[in-house]
Amino acid sequence: MALSRLDSLYMAVVSDHSKSPHHHGVIEGVEALQLNNPTCGDVIALSVKFDGDVIEDIAFAGDGCTISTASSSMMTDVVIGKTTKEALALANLFSEMVQGQQNPDYEKLGEAEFMAGVSKFPQRVKCATLAWNALKKSIQRHEEETA
Fold first, then answer.
1. Four-residue CA torsion sign, 50, 96, 37, 16
2. pLDDT tens-digit map of 115-126
3. How far apart are CA 5 and CA 36, in angstroms?
């Protein structure tokens, strides 16, 4: 069965982000928040550097599958420079998308919009949302510390 052009593009973008993830590593002087997916063993350590309520820098480390790594990479690209409110809105939008909901705002997710196909594989949704959930928890921790 031949792949459609969109499926081929999806596979290429996901593969690229997985093999050469953006913002992979740690940020010196920033405490990383660690989350894991006990279902498959994916682990992420997310470091977020804030300037007030803006995400100044972000990096991730850990071990994850192709979907988890690619999603983490795409997430870092789209949220850097965003306010915490904007980043949370994007995280919620991403969660809706990978659960199969429809919304014209998915284009705001940048290349992360390619992850929409994960909705066809419910067992992979946790892989795709791991970094986004770590982002939500990092923002929550930041807001609690600065309140």
1. negative
2. 998 898 899 999
3. 33
Buried b (16+ CB within 10 A) or exposed e, 9-19: ebeebbeebbe
**pLDDT band at 39; cut points 50, 70, 90:** confident
Strands 42-51 and 33-37: antiparallel
Is this model's pTM higher than 0.90 or not? yes
Q: What is residue 105's DSSP assignment?
A: G
Count of structural domains within the chain: 1
CATH number of 82's domain: 3.90.1010.10
Tokens of 97: 């998308």
Given a contact cutoff of 8 angstroms between Cβ atoms, the answer to whether 74 and 112 are in contact is: yes
Range of 142's domain? 5-146
Helix (H) or strand (E) holding 49: strand 42-51
CB-count exposure of residue 22 (10 Å: 0-12, 13-18, 19+): middle
